Each structure stands twice: as structure tokens, then as C-alpha cells.
Amino acid sequence: MNAIAWLGRLVIERVRGIGVATLMLLQIIFSLPTWLGVKLFIYQMYRVGVMSLLIITVSGLFIG
User: Fold this and answer.
1) Does position 3 have pLDDT exceeding 80, yes or no?
2) What would the pLDDT profile of 17-64 be if each residue is shown by its tens digit?
């Protein structure tokens, strides 16, 4: 009886591990960046970088 219980626990642990790995894979697949997200990211980087050059230039002129 002890060997059967050990085998049952082993099978349950393996199935649980496969389930956890499958859930992690599904979370990764569903959280991949979409095309809209990439476009918004590029737009935000443009706004933060290029659009702030005027402020950086004026600050640099006054500071020296």
C-alpha cells in the first residue's frame, strides 16, 4: 500500500508541475506586446526624448 501511495504522490506532483508550467506559458503568451503597445511606446519615447530638447537647450544656456 505504501508503494501505491508513493506512486500516486509522484504522479500528482508531476501533473501539478506540468499545470504550473502551462499556466506560466499562457501568461507569457497573453502578455506579449501588441502592435498598438509598441506604437504607443515609440510615441512616448519620442515625446520624452525629442520634445524635451528645447527645455534641455534653454536650461543649458542659462546654466552655462
Assistant:
1) yes
2) 999 999 999 998 888 878 888 889 899 999 888 888 888 899 999 997
Distance CA 11, CA 18 (A): 11
C-alpha cell at 13: 506532483
CA of 51: how far to CAs of 5, 14, 38, 39, in Å? Answer: 67, 54, 19, 17
Q: Which three cell numbers stand for residue 19?
A: 499545470
DSSP string for residues in 16-34: HHHHHHHHHHHHHHHTSPP
Which is nearest to 20 in space by CA: 30, 8, 12, 9? Answer: 12
